[in-house]
Task: structure prediction
Amino acid sequence: MNLTKKINSRDVHTVRFHVSNVCNHNCTYCHVFKEPSPDKTKLMKFNTIKPVLDFYADKNKTFPNQVFNFSFYGGEPLFNWRVIQKALSYGNRMMPGRIQWIVNTNGTIITREKAETLFKEGVDVHVSIDGPDEKTNKNRRFKTGRPVVKKVLAALEILMHNHCRVQFDSCLTMANIDAIESLIDLASHNHVDRIYLALIDEPGRLDKDFYPAEKIADRLIKALTYAQTKNIVLGGPWKCFFPLFLPQPQTIVKQNPHLIVDPSGILSFPTFPEFKFGDVGQIENISETPAYKTALKNTAAMAKTCRGCDLAKVCSGYLKGMVKYHTGSFQGHQRECDLAKAVFYKYSTLLNNLKTKKSTRKITLINTNLLETPLIHSRHLKIEPQGHICQIVHNLSGYAISASKDMLEFMDSFKQPRAPCDALKIYSIPDITRIIQVLVKNSMLLDLSTDEELAFLKEKTSDFSKNRIDTTNCICFYPISHTGTAQKFVHAIELLYLNLSKKFNPLRQRLLIYLCQDRKELAGFWFEPLIPPWIKAFVACRRILVADINKFEIIDDRGFKQGMSHEITHILLSDFNVKLPVWLEEGLCEYFSKPDPTETLLALMKKKQLLSFKKMESRTMHTLLDIDNSRTQENICYHQSHSFVSYLCKTFGERKILSCITEMGLQKDFSQTFYKNTNKHLDEIERKWRKKLVN
Result:
């Protein structure tokens, strides 16, 4: 019997690859090397990972809405960097936009090149650190005995400058229990938005070795309050109670076991590693093995022992299982349970004191799943002021909702995929389930399987007969009689995209290409009734590259490469999910596709006048052609925007400018995020650019 049919679609989707049995640390509380490993394999091979990725790629066809969670553990996993690189590339190619990757690292062998790859492949980097200095990190040491903290702090700088998403994995010890706020400050300084703070689980550890649960809970409640002021989510095993504060207190939260893959490819559950299910080549049939069935029975039996506990609905034995995974025994789990309950009771009191109302409305299983499903807000949202409030308008459907400042901030939290229940850790929103349902129904929030632009394209072009080409990064629709040209066109776009994507994150969804059979069909995508005769291609609907196939007889010349690179950059920028000023977007597209424009701009300035960028934006309805309708080569607005963006990138660095864009949102424009990142006003920099230009 196949595992896909045997188990529920939400079971065993979190796979943990133990890719390395090698580490350069000798941490006093490490549970991985607490005793010699029976597995003599030091580094996992890619051929061990590939069957697992292939299995879930096939499973993705059965459960197309599922996001799969894969993580790399050790030892120190980055000692097996070559295999991790290969797995990331292969997995993202097989299941684009369907994988949430995690790397758990001690942070001491991170390089700029590694950080660039982790950012490009969309990896969530979990860095082990207990505080900002040697004192708080005294338990973390190299094998030579030297402290590790300087190396880790340097790695955090590298990760921050490469825009990697980072979580701190921290242990709560006597060395840092009174310095949690310093850890939070360190996270804030390095743009880290999450801290996972856990007790140390060691065989034989007694309660007297540490503070009692009540005292630790007081410190954690204080730290939780402080973390909220820094927009940082502070969590850990002790916060397993949090689902009880979601709008479905009657719901039982099921804890599904992770699937562990050890370096030699043997499969097991972390809580019961003594039961081996076979190797990765047998992954389709592990549910038939006696070991698998026994491990599941033991997991269920473990949960039954928690009946009567106030946290039983949400913990289901999770804390006991975690202690057994760390120590090999259930002994000592009580301290974890006592702490979770102590924090739960104090957190409840805190909310009551703040008069925070908790919804008790029953919701259906579908609604519960909706809160746990990663969502992203549509690319097509815009803000329209309405007196003291504003409206969020969906440009494709025309649907609009009134939105407060809090609502705008909540929507901004979905610029990139996120489960609503994660957002609830930061925002207190009554009746959240109903709100989420309304936003999803009206396509303002989308699950990751929704392709708005593809649906729009199919509806708009239903009267035209087209063939289709699917490649790794593109979906192309083209006239039936132009197969050869279409294949060459798509191949060229693939190569240009691969080159440009080194500067950006990989696209969440594939490029859409629509090759028109004539000018009339092309004009149907333009924003005005008449399309300028010199336009051959443009981006419609933020993601669809529309082109007149009859205008591209030569596909390898410089003009084609520059023009298409410009259009592909538009699509890459749309994945930031923010509305850029037109001058900035066009300037970036020119910057990443064409050489320095200074000479041409100076010549154009003898005939045409430069505008301030504020004035340029105020006069723009759709494109810069609204101001100067000349061809791009003779258009002063395009050259001016290109020159200024080039100046910004040379002065502050490309990554700094892209970081400013990343931080934009429905409430934050580019000038605000630019000032936050550079401590400079954009008007001031524009004046310096003008002065340099004329001199």
